[in-house]
Amino acid sequence: MSATILSMEAVSLSFKDKRVLNNLTFAIPRGEAFGFLGPSGAGKTTTIKLLTRQLKRDAGRISLFGRPIDNATSADYERIGILSDTSALYERMSIADNLRLYAQLRGASQRRIPYLLERMGLADDQKTLIKNCSKGMRQRTALAAALIHEPELLFLDEPTSGLDPAARAEVHRMLAELSGKGCTIFLTTHDMAEAETVCDRVAILDHGAIAACDKPEALMLRYARNRIVVKTRTRGTVETSKDAAGAAALAELLEAGEVLSVHSDEPNLEEVFLELTGREF
């Protein structure tokens, strides 16, 4: 079994009289891409701030690299990469100069910069000043900066926000490669299709508590509807149930040569999210 890289056990946090996080418990093994999903205001960013010691919990235990987070050292945090809405880029410096600066600050080799520029689709724009970059270019530069030192643990808060489909797909491929090499990823996103594609497991947060945590496909099967949809030659669309009566109805349609297609009606992750939280993203 892989070592646990990051965990929370019965963690709670309140701001004055408002309970923001309530008894959060999860454990993330090395190399897992873990999605942390929830509506706006559910506590996702607050959780990341606790995990990166920007905030202090009221109760519970947090472990980082197998040790209590209170004992984490600066060397531990050198093993972490972070992309958030507060990730800093220097406006009057070029894309490449920002990456060179981050490599210097992280004590990383600058030989990785051309590779990151190419993977992020920034090679042709590397001399562009950040102040002249689009939102998507800024996001890709910030992600490259978070990866400059090849972190073991990566916190990503909406990593593909503002990216076009091609750039988003390339980021997804890169994240899969990183996870395959043992990098642990903690991802928040409003894009449920992204969570399905990237994440090994997802936790759905609602009002500061975890409503469900499992593999995306397991969650979708758990909340599957008891319905089969059959498109027929002459009888239109027929709906039947996933039971003996439904099997008999489907057999009759097959025997009559009516069946054009059969679909089992499982929800996607977005529908599961809405069912569990009752709220939009």
Automatic annotation (TrEMBL):
ABC transporter domain residues: 6-232
Annotated protein name in UniProt: ABC transporter ATP-binding protein
Keywords of the record: ATP-binding, Nucleotide-binding, Transport
MF terms in GO: ATP binding; ATP hydrolysis activity
CDD domains membership: ABC_DR_subfamily_A
A Pfam entry, by short name: ABC_tran
Organism this protein belongs to: Muribaculaceae bacterium Z82
